[in-house]
Amino acid sequence: MADDRPAAPDAAPDAAAPARPERDRPWVMRTYAGHSSAAASNALYRRNLEKGQTGLSVAFDLPTQTGYDPDHVLARGEVGKVGVPISHIGDMRALFDQIPLGQMNTSMTINATAMWLLAMYQVAAEEQAEAAGEDPATVVKALAGTTQNDIIKEYLSRGTYVFAPAPSLRLITDMVSYTVAEIPKWNPINICSYHLQEAGATPVQEIAYAMSTAIAVLDAVRDAGQVPQERFGEVVARISFFVNAGVRFVEEMCKMRAFVELWDELTRERYGVTDAKQRRFRYGVQVNSLGLTEAQPENNVQRIVLEMLAVTLSKDARARAVQLPAWNEALGLPRPWDQQWSLRMQQVLAFESDLLEYDDLFTGSTVVEAKVAELVAGAKAEIDRVQQMGGAVAAVESGYMKSALVASHALRRQRIEAGEDVIVGVNRFETTEPNPLTADLDTAIQTVDAGVESAAASAVREWREQRDADPARRDRAAAALTRLREVAATDENLMEASLECARAEVTTGEWAQALRDVFGEFRAPTGVTGSVGLTGGAAGTELAAVRTRVAELRDELGETLRVLVGKPGLDGHSNGAEQIAVRARDAGFEVIYQGIRLTPEQIVAAAVSEDVHLVGISILSGSHMELVPEVLERLREAGAGDIPVIVGGIIPESDATRLKALGVAEVFTPKDFGLNDIMSRFVDVIRESRHTETAEPTPV
């Protein structure tokens, strides 16, 4: 019988093996990491690189970021907590041991002291080249990476500034000019809108203030005359951006397309850059840590994925580098396993999905085009407003931009409290099964060994002592610092003097102090001088009830209720403290808020001199167990131990229990999002401390 079945094909049909387009190269994948010590961080970096990470993103601790050695009084409690301490060239060598810098792409989150860290990075690369028998100059030319170095946003949101705007801009200008000539693959600045969003910026404000900062930097570089006009396109080509992506990922994707459009227009029309490649909007991203929740933290995983899509879906506005936070960052410091999970999210999207096989998915979308046009128009109007004030620096010094962000953040908090903005697991869908990921909170995060600070302080003292015990080394360091001060007093580029300081074994604190001697220091406006005021609806009703309670206790005591909001240590993340200060003022309290970077001694002195009824301490850097007990002790020594102290921040439950045992009246963490409830608790705490009869609290 004849076989009527079709013959088997020689090859699989097209339906079984469809042709696949050529894939784009993935973005650089990083993990923001660093803690405890250079050696511990080096081990972490090498493990992450082995797992497929394609770039490094270095987190420095707060003393390094603000120019203090680990043994300085202001470094107390902060050493190795939010990043790695780098005190001198020896630490930089250890940080990158067995990591060839000439082949690496390194992002360094450093701002006020960016020039110093870049100088040490270059010297470490030169030493690696010499040890390998390579030409140091060739390796330096090959260095690739980024220093964050956006000082404007430090005044507005993150608080790790040191100097006033003018000398800070001079340091940036010198770095830009130097790197264009000597390290041509290096991005000397990341215009950083990331922290603006965390400080409350709307998408329009985020775009506008970032662009205003870019204008200030580019104008300063142009006017300094260190770069020939014909090479100015090279300056523009090395300007990068570091942005935020929130969970409203459609709007965030449109924001990135708006950034691309505005940057192309700005660099073409204002600076005359004709090369389209030099005008390309180049940005890296970390998605929104502000939106991560302590309550039901497992929800943070899907938030992170959605936020990653905002900066990867649109090919025409795709990020060049991505780093993702970990699911448990609202609880504390992520462990290596948590960081690996975030890296794997990127790898699944880049290598398992077909995203990189297609051209831009949104070209021709009327919905996207309309939203982008709306954002561009709004940003242009706000940029014009800032320029009319004299530019970004003037808008910082006047307090305009800071006040605008504080107000935006306050309105956002009010929407959350009113339930208009839903946060799953926080203000809606709060019922939950037991979470196995957080069953043991003490092991769900990584903790920094208590001996890290004393070890780092001893090590830096030993470094200085050994250096100075050798007359030649001592004299070279002293001469380098003298030269640094001399150059700072002129308009000469400071980079060469900083490089000599690195080679001469100068410490981070010594380098920064030499510049403080010339430039002085600066305290930025706090942005909480005004009042946001009552809102309508339930939130307004709740606040009115709190105002009534405040007024009743005021009348009982016969005096205005005064609250001191203090930020001890070097933690500059002041958004929470500012929102507490604003709401307390709206609730009828008199608020004393002096800004960031105070010693416990200064906080206690202010509490006593202002005769306050309550001290509120805000700490997000993990230094609460060192600094809060010192505040309590100093209050007792000053005869003011009866003033109640409350604490807010990222504080593990076990630490909260210990703080209350030491005498803290109340501890608030990110899960306590209801500011009106917190204000009502203020009234209770003051009443309890004054031993007045407890009135029936008004429900809020």
Blueprint of the fold:
Blueprint: E1 28-30, E2 32-33, H1 38-50, E3 56-59, H2 62-66, H3 89-95, E4 105-109, H4 114-131, H5 136-142, E5 144-147, H6 151-158, H7 165-182, E6 186-187, E7 189-192, H8 194-198, H9 203-224, H10 232-237, E8 239-243, H11 249-269, E9 283-286, H12 299-310, E10 321-323, H13 336-352, H14 366-388, H15 392-397, H16 400-418, H17 452-469, H18 471-488, H19 495-503, H20 508-519, H21 537-557, E11 562-566, H22 575-586, E12 590-593, H23 600-609, E13 614-619, H24 624-637, E14 645-649, H25 653-662, E15 666-668, H26 675-689
Parallel strand pairs: 1-10, 2-3, 3-4, 4-5, 5-6, 7-8, 8-9, 9-10, 11-12, 11-13, 13-14, 14-15
Helix pairs in contact: 1-3, 4-5, 4-19, 7-9, 9-11, 9-14, 11-12, 11-14, 16-22, 18-19, 18-20, 21-26, 23-24
Domain B12-binding: 560-689
Organism: Knoellia flava
Pfam family, one: B12-binding
Structure write-up:
With 700 residues, this protein is α/β, with parallel strands linked by helices. It is built from 26 helices and 15 strands. The protein has a five-stranded parallel sheet. The protein has a five-stranded parallel sheet with strand order 2-3-4-5-6. Helix 25 (653-662) links the parallel strand 14 (645-649) and strand 15. Helix 9 packs parallel to helix 11 and helix 11 (249-269) crosses helix 14. The longest helix has 23 residues, at 366-388. The mean pLDDT is 91.
